[in-house]
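General statements about sequence and structure are easier to judge against a single worked case. Part of our work consisted of pairing the sequence of a single chain with a tokenised description of its backbone. The amino acid sequence and the backbone structure tokens for this protein are reproduced below.

***
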Amino acid sequence: GGTAYPCEIMNALRGFAFRSASRVFTPTVQLARRNMSFRKPQVTGVEVLHQTKWLALKRVNYTDGIGNAHEWETVERTTKQNDQPDAVTIVAIAQEAVPSGYVEGRNVLPPEPGLVIVKQFRPSVGKVCVELPAGLIDPGETAEQAAVRELKEETGLTGTVVGTSPVLFNDPGITNASCHLVLMNVDLSDPANRNPKQARDDAEQLTVISVALSELMKCLHVWETDPKFVLDARLYSMAFGWQVLTQVR
């Protein structure tokens, strides 16, 4: 219970799943293991069935853990760089850099931080998706560099990187598309963030908002009931995780 303030929020988010410069936090509990002998499943061949400018439909031949042969159809980005992650998804926490304490004789707490969210029309679902800022990693970029660039382009905001997740796969049942989650801090008192201007391309029509973390799940439920909107799984999963975290503290 109680109110979580910026440093607590950053530490809570970073400590669970984000890597520091020296190590990756990966707590693991093994629940069960079957006493069986398995071979390692492996891909034996890949065939391109159809390809457009941005996507390729492929047939993957593979053998399972007991040696049986199978086929699987999958979609891959044509921009994929070998086994490198495709994109970054940005968890940007926006806050005024006001320390707690006495200000002009008054005991004040820092303003509640907000999560930066974008609303963007997604042709694949035919609706506006409420989601986290995100974008592809350019050749030669690190995930951190891509996150700083994409946040600026999509929202006009300048932020600093706090931590980066391991490589995550978005929907491995149909695609090998992958990303890093990048945790960023956005100081709204920074002059660079006073009048943010987006640098999006003509095809992107994004609305940028900041939602207080304590109100995030409530806002998502409101949008979920509006037929104009759909919710991004990563955003909702984060909101759900944050709700669980605050309830078990």
